[in-house]
């Protein structure tokens, strides 16, 4: 893998446990749960289910997880960004569980434990995958979606293209909502031409993991994670940029309550600045 870090960001920081026990009423979700098992495991207050879901693409399955607390007041689907996987969101999952949220996670196709060619998909396929997960959700319980980076672009475009789909709220972390300025008309035309000549060519996105977290230990964990994948096919890149061009011109059609979050020093996605 080819990831980079910025030395000045790699200062010593307090070491955090990656997935500690949930400290609610003194005991609950034990760290001892195997993160890669398939089936159902239970603790005194949390039920964990992990399995594979069939998609509309023959032979491609999604790695899917459900975390159900003893009492469910609401539910949330967590959608990860490009190059990563749902395993990076265990601490966030723990926080939601503490507040009686049922949590759904899945690895997007081509990433993590899910099937599909690494770093090669289309946003349309990702929309279909999200729809499969949504069919598993109990709509009688308030639903929220938390999504990060590319995952946010995918979810927002899904909502714009499916206006009948309603839920309680959307939380977007480092959402990529517009095409970076460096992709001018000439580069876009060149990229379009390359999709005709070599659509499956994988290019390194050179993600700088120093911008992923302020915590040095977490950055090192990401850098050594064999499930992280920084490569993207030409076709995938062009498809993503086309959908990002679609989002802002249609933003007024978006009626679902949304919270946009972006780190002050985050560089992986462009932040929208408002006066």
Structural description of this entry:
By secondary structure, this protein is of the alpha/beta class. The chain has a domain of 186 residues: Rossmann fold (3-Layer(aba) Sandwich). The chain is 25% helix and 20% strand. The protein is built from 6 helices and 10 strands. The strands form 2 sheets. It has an 8-stranded mixed beta sheet, with helices on both faces. A two-stranded antiparallel ribbon has the order 8-9. Strand 1 and strand 2 form a beta hairpin. Helix 3 crosses helix 6 and helix 4 packs across helix 6. The longest helix has 14 residues. About 10% of the residues have low confidence. It comes from Paramecium tetraurelia. Pfam families: Hydrolase_4. InterPro entries: AB_hydrolase_fold, Hydrolase_4, MAG_DAG_Lipase.
Strand and helix map with partners:
Blueprint: E1 39-42, E2 46-54, E3 61-69, E4 74-79, H1 90-98, E5 101-106, H2 123-134, E6 143-148, H3 150-161, E7 169-173, H4 185-197, E8 202-204, H5 216-223, E9 231-233, H6 234-247, E10 258-261
Parallel strand pairs: 4-5, 4-6, 6-7, 7-10
Antiparallel strand pairs: 1-2, 2-3, 3-5, 8-9
Helix pairs in contact: 3-6, 4-6
Biased composition (Basic and acidic residues): 1-19
Protein name: Serine aminopeptidase S33 domain-containing protein
Region (Disordered): 1-23
